[in-house]
Amino acid sequence: MSTQMTAFLKQSRKKGDIALRQVPLPMPGPGQVLIRTEAVGLCGSDIHAVNSHAGYEWLPERVVLGHEAVGIIHAVGPDVSSTRIGERVVPLAIDGCLNCSVCAGGTPQLCSQRDCLGLSFDGALADFFVLDAGRTVTIDNELSSSMAALVEPTGVAVHAVRQLGENLQGQRIIVSGPGPVGLLCGLFAEELGADVELVGPLEGSQTRLDFASQLGFATVRGHEGIEGTRNGRPIDAWIEASGAAVVLETAITLVRRGGTIVIPGLFGVLPHLDVNQLVRSEARLQGTYGYTRGDYGAATELLLGNQERLASMVTEFPMESVLAAVEATEQTTVIKAVVVADWTTTRRRL
């Protein structure tokens, strides 16, 4: 086995300093596994890291990117059973220290010592990556490579929607931001019984809103369209996945009294919130971050049940075209870019 591998690096903290390079093959330490990468999705966090945006100053000087991943355990370190070799897994990309009261309470994603694969330490956009064995979750072989790489962002969506409860029968829910997380939020809310509408801007989201329509969602385009939602049934809940300050500001004025606004996305420009409106309407503003291990189970079931419906959401790129995948993600010319390893051809298509 070669001692070198191909990896996609953020080479320094300089904006855009990225490259596909040959690097030493990592070896698993005590309690760790070496995973052969099958597929990796790209998301907004990767783009923020690539561009050294505010809030990403904590990244290491040099790091392999990639956290939405699936792969096969290729080797194990000390204290890990060799029976795990060959197991297909997805990583819990975000995890806590597992020793504090926050982690013990079942919310390790909120731990003050939490870290993230592909941001805090070397990630999965490489031929192989190393991870603590306890941060892996076995994944169904029936999922294609690209669908399995969506377990992590689907976990984010599941965790967000669960802030509204497990039975959303008959509720009217608006999801703003028809990107992958917004679309997956809409899909899970629909599974729980909600009537879902997807909202996006007039410019730059036609492909995503068209795909939302293909999934069967009602769609709303532009700010005038958002304002038009006043004329329908009361809005029970709003999931703000666009990261657009003006949309959140508007959502507060539109959700019904006693309704809930869930925010799974981060904002480049902080919104100016009408707190008096929140008080007078007794609306709930709920932030949501990451996921728990339990969210992965529901995420996997959601993907298994909708694999054919979601297949066209993904655009696959080979590893040698990872720079093109980054550009397509940044320019939103694709809904979801997934980098797929050459050796996984048997799982690439349904």
Automatic annotation (TrEMBL):
Keywords, in A-Z order: Metal-binding, Oxidoreductase, Zinc
InterPro entries reported in the protein's UniProt record: ADH-like_C (IPR013149), ADH-like_N (IPR013154), ADH_Zn_CS (IPR002328), GroES-like_sf (IPR011032), NAD(P)-bd_dom_sf (IPR036291), Zn_alcohol_dh (IPR050129)
Gene3D superfamilies xref list: Medium-chain alcohol dehydrogenases, catalytic domain, NAD(P)-binding Rossmann-like Domain
Residues of the Alcohol dehydrogenase-like N-terminal domain: 29-139
Keyword Oxidoreductase listed: yes
Pfam families attached to this UniProt entry: ADH_N, ADH_zinc_N
Superkingdom assignment: Bacteria
Cofactor(s) listed: Zn(2+)
Domain Alcohol dehydrogenase-like C-terminal: 180-303
Keyword set includes Repressor: no
Family: Belongs to the zinc-containing alcohol dehydrogenase family.
Name of the protein this chain belongs to: Alcohol dehydrogenase catalytic domain-containing protein
Organism for this UniProt entry: Pseudarthrobacter humi
Lineage: Bacteria, Bacillati, Actinomycetota, Actinomycetes, Micrococcales
